[in-house]
Specification:
Layout (H helix, E strand, L loop, with lengths): L1 H25 L24 H8 L1 H4 L14 H6 L2 H10 L19 H12 L3 E8 L2 E8 L30 H11 L1 H4 L6 E3 L2 E3 L5 H6 L2 H10 L24 H17 L6
Helix pairs in contact: 5-6, 7-11, 10-11
């Protein structure tokens, strides 16, 4: 009698355990609570190749979300994207601009980005379609980026080629004429930036001053040239060809005009007691 009761009780005690074991065996291939999902593992920083992630982490703080409305000149500007040479863009991203807040981002220069990540940024900003090539040989992975008309479409879209009439992006090989630059400044810039770049007074406040030691120390001649050409539409600054806010007989600025304007601002920098070396 005792034995039967023990066996009966054992069956009652073991039955739930059997059910649990059966469920575990049946679901051994299922995702269990707390089991890591390989798809959810964080991607190492050096393997991230998504443009939106790379841009957000490295560029948006200065150039603004989606390349607009930041303290630094916008990158998502059709005119800039059309005229900036890809090799110049790669150089600036990789090496930065010494003496300015633009840091070097390439690994080889102490930055956080691999060569392929730099290329992703360059192709996306330039609007060039591309594909990522991931090859493995002798146990080593080799990731590369190649241009491909059928590849990834840049997030900011493609860019039309720059018209021949647009002034060249690069700095002139010869020094500009700052005296002529002063004449051009009076026609194209003084209405917003004041005589000699000292700003304009509105409601008792001086605004738009660019003949300023701090500003000139932090901006390169190349950046000045770029802004003169493209303007800052986010700040309502016209580009090289637009006439709003300028003298009635204003004509689009030529490449030489822009070279001379850069020479003028460079002369202000040299005259500043805190001029950058």
């Amino acid at each position: 009698m005792i034995a039967r009761s023990f066996k009966s009780g054992s069956r009652r005690c073991l039955s739930p355990l059997c059910v649990v074991f059966a469920l575990l065996i049946a679901g051994c291939n299922a995702d269990l609570p707390g089991k890591p999902n390989p798809k959810e593992r964080p991607i190492p920083a050096e393997k991230v190749l998504a443009f939106d992630v790379l841009y957000s982490r490295n560029c948006a703080g200065c150039h603004g979300k989606d390349g607009k409305q930041g303290p630094a000149p916008p990158l998502n500007d059709p005119l800039f994207r059309a005229i900036v040479p890809a090799d110049e863009l790669e150089k600036v991203v990789s090496q930065g601009r010494p003496g300015t807040p633009m840091a070097a981002f390439a690994h080889r220069n102490g930055g956080s980005l691999t060569a392929v990540q730099v290329q992703v940024l360059v192709n996306e900003i330039k609007g060039v379609r591309y594909r990522i090539v991931d090859e493995r040989a002798e146990g080593k992975a080799n990731v590369d980026l190649v241009a491909d008309d059928e590849g990834i479409m840049p997030k900011w879209g493609a860019v039309a080629p720059a018209a021949p009439s647009i002034p060249s992006y690069g700095l002139a090989k010869t020094n500009g004429n700052d005296a002529h630059g002063a004449e051009i400044f009076a026609q194209a810039c003084a209405s917003c930036h004041g005589n000699n770049g000292k700003g304009v007074v509105k409601d008792g406040k001086r605004l738009n001053k660019i003949n300023d030691p701090a500003f000139l120390a932090l901006i390169s001649d190349q950046a000045i040239r770029r802004i003169i050409i493209t303007g800052r539409l986010d700040l309502k600054m016209p580009d090289y060809s637009q006439s709003q806010g300028r003298v009635d007989d204003f004509q689009p600025l030529t490449s030489t005009d822009i070279t001379d304007l850069v020479a003028l601002l460079a002369s202000w920098r040299r005259a500043s007691p805190t001029a950058a070396e």
